[in-house]
Amino acid sequence: MTIETTEARTVIEVVDPTADKINAGANSLAPRLDTLNGKVLGLLSNSKPNAEVALQAVAAEIAATYPEVEIRLYQGSIRFEKELLDRAIEESDALLGATADCGACTSWLIHDGARAEKAGVPQVTIVARGFETDTDTSAKVFGVPDLQYVVVPRVFTALTAEQAAEQTIGTADEIIRLLTTSPVGAEAAELAEGKQDTYTFTGAGPVEALQAFNEYFLDHDFGDGLPLVPPTRERVEAIIAAQSQARDELILTVPPVHGHATLEKIAVNAAMAGVLPQELPVVIAALKAIADCPPPMNLSVLMSTGAFAPVVMVNGPIVERLGINSVRSVLGPGSKNRVGIRIGRAIGLVLRNLGLWIPGRMDLDTIGTVRKNIQVFGENEAESPWEPYNVTQGFRPDEDTVTVLHSVGEWDLGSNHGGVDVRLRSLAARTPTLTQVGFMTKTLGGLTGAEDGVFYLIPPETAKRFSDAGLSKDAVKRYFLHNVRRPIADIIAPFEDFHARGLIKPEWEWLFQLSREEQRSQTIQAFLDPSTIQIAVAGHGTPKEFVFGTMTTPITRKIAALG
After folding, report:
1. UGSC-like domain spans which residues (predicted)?
2. Sheet with strand 70-75: strands edge to edge
3. CA 381-287-114 angle, 5° bins
4. What one-character DSSP code corresponds to residue 337?
5. Are 146 and 186 in contact (CB under 8 A)?
6. Residue ranges, CATH 3.40.50.10350, the chain
7. What separation, in Å, do the N-terminal and C-terminal C-alpha atoms of the chain show?
8. What is the DSSP letter of 441?
9. SS3 sequence, 274-291?
């Protein structure tokens, strides 16, 4: 029995929710150098503000000690392009990387440093204080747990160039030591220390035992801050028994640390959220869609210092079968949303316990957002005049799917006045265009141009008015593509610093050459790729439109059948 009650006490035994394995080995560090004289020291600048300033300053200090060292600068991006990183590794005897002072940039910089160490080139990374845990965990995830780094007091983005140089110069001796001296007694630490298969909690009665369980799990960051349902062996087994996979089958590896998610481990976390057996396939499909996010955004959306979070939409007969809300207040609380809340919570617990999506560890969000309490809702297909969203993505209407959009913000547009033309203009005018990654910059390798989009939730009443006027969903999307426009001054404002540092793509240089008056008076499309604009029908009642800002093109996956 996993819950046993006697006159004297209640005993609750629960199953461990954390990953048994991650996708990483334990590679040794590359051999250190005897001297830097006569060697090439490559500087890996990842385009972060003051990265190059800091590298050049500390390299000059190192050169004062080793006058025969050759310094080479490699100007990359937050995710170094493979060809550039390969060239830097090939040409350099040692590498120095900067800067690790945000979630995604830290992890990618450690990823690049780990590649160098595995290739036999010693490296050191410059890390801002507060990002040590992220650095240590990333090093373990990328298979070089002893990866070497130095810590500076403040994040570089908060400093002037002079301050950035000043705080980095003092690390020169430590960098030299780490490049020329092998660490003594370094061992590969485990990601989860003190891990055990089950936990037992006792109390004078059921309430006290439940309280002891919750206090321990929440204190150890196994939970999301709200009371948890004990994942007893009976509850976990009931969820497993309803599925078609074997309990130890690897379903996926969960980002950002790529923890191994077997059916059993997913079931344990789902049990803590109160998920019913028939709801687990939705959880699994959503996790697979999150894992399918292409690099570099697969890490950026989960590890950034920005407030990004996945949102999940469900399509198909399963919406009605499970009772997922698709009508009024689909993103709200209450009994109508309890299924979506359970499923969203289970997704978050899996990301936390199997992917280490934990604030201060792999989630370095500065402010945070309530959207990290993952929202799950259904599209209102019954009242929509248009084809369901999943059909536009190539699925049949009778197929059950999830769509994951990595959100950057949400806005109630509320344009419930006027005819079709007025409403379209109003929606276009009120659509936010808070560019985060930017189609203009070269700061993240591998971007496709589909980043920084919007996902509209159109209520049925609005959709019917558009449809009655002869507008298809695609026609409305095309209208938004061409009519969501902003003054050039507003579009380029976040990128003035990037332009000054030569990080703007050449095709956008003309925007910065316009006069200030021209930049203020002329407008430009806010979205250039049709795939950045998506529309689904949800809600019920008053025509109040809603939009999420998105970081990536939404990903749709089929939900597997039970049994």
Report:
1. 13-180
2. 70-75, 40-45, 94-100, 123-128, 149-152
3. 145
4. G
5. yes
6. 40-180
7. 26
8. B
9. CCCHHHHHHHHHHHHHHH
**What is the pTM assigned to this prediction?**
0.89
The per-residue pLDDT for range 70-115, each reduced to its tens digit, is 999 999 888 888 899 999 999 999 999 998 788 778 888 999 999 9
Band of pLDDT at residue 187, cut at 50, 70 and 90? very low
In angstroms, rounded to a whole number, what is the distance separating the alpha carbons of residues 46 and 18? Answer: 33
Cα–Cα distance between 287 and 296 in angstroms, integer? 18
What does DSSP assign to residue 305?
S
Q: What is the pLDDT of residues 480-530, one digit of tens each?
A: 999 999 999 998 998 888 888 888 889 999 999 999 999 999 999 988 888
The CATH homologous superfamily for domain 40-180 is Glycerate kinase; domain 1 (3.40.50.10350)
E-only strand ranges, 294-335: 309-315
Instruction: Tell me which residue has tokens 């060697």.
Output: 39
Using CB atoms within 10 Å of the CB of residue 403, give its burial: 0 to 12 exposed, 13 to 18 middle, 19+ buried: buried
Burial 65-76 (b: 16+ CB within 10 A, else e): ebeebbbeebbb
- Burial of residue 195, with CB atoms counted within 10 A of its CB: 0-12 exposed, 13-18 middle, 19 or more buried: exposed
3-state secondary structure of 185: coil
Token digits for 152?
A: 């500076």
Which residues share a beta bridge with 71? 41
The predicted-structure confidence for 451-475, as pLDDT tens digits, reads as follows 789 999 999 999 999 999 999 999 9
Name which of 274, 278, 265 is nearest 15 in CA terms. 265
Q: What three-state secondary structure class fits 556?
A: strand
Helix or strand holding residue 351 (H, E): helix 338-355
Cα–Cα distance, 366 to 157 (Å, whole number): 13
Q: How many other CB atoms are there within 10 angstroms of residue 84's CB atom?
A: 16
The DSSP H or E segment spanning 179 is helix 172-180
The answer to whether 268 touches 16, Cβ cutoff 8 Å, is yes
Count of all residues that appear for the chain in the document? 563
Does residue 202 come out as left (phi exceeding 0), alpha (psi in the -120 to 50 range) or beta? beta
Is 261:299 a contact under the CB 8 Å cutoff?
A: no
